[in-house]
Amino acid sequence: MSRPYLQILFFHELLLLLLLESCYIADCYDPLDPNENITITYDIISWTTDTDGYWAKVTIENYYQYRHVEKPGWKLGFDWAENEVIWSMTGALATQSGNCSAFKYRVPYCCQRSPEIIDLMPDAAPINRSENCCRNGVLAARDIDQKNAISILYDRGELTQPLDREDTKECDIHGSWTRLHM
Asked: Helix (H, G, I), strand (E, B), or coil: what is residue 77?
């Protein structure tokens, strides 16, 4: 092979390597929004009186100024800190229900140890909807459309092991948010 051919080949390989590297970096960093993020807030809004259950509000907020969350939308996953189940949910749905065979009379909505939650479709029934839901996981950029930069869902969870009622203010319901796919 001639020397100029090798130089051109080396140049193309180097260019390809730099292009691939810049694509990887671009997924993690947006120069238009260098300090922005997507925030997940999990608030226990009330405790049930009959069981060790609670109602929780989960808010997903897109704080990017210009970056949208496009289709296929967000998918939220987490690992329970304790043995817990989800009895009901509005504004989103669990992708799998898990093995609920331990429950004989009332069957929970989701028994997964690590559930994955997705947004509802825009044509979801009114009974399944919550405010700011049902956009198929799409979140607008905050500075472009603030109302559609938020997604809210509610779930009724319950511990399968009794909880010390004196310690409910310090209870860590979720062990960790394991995945947020965009």
From this structure: strand
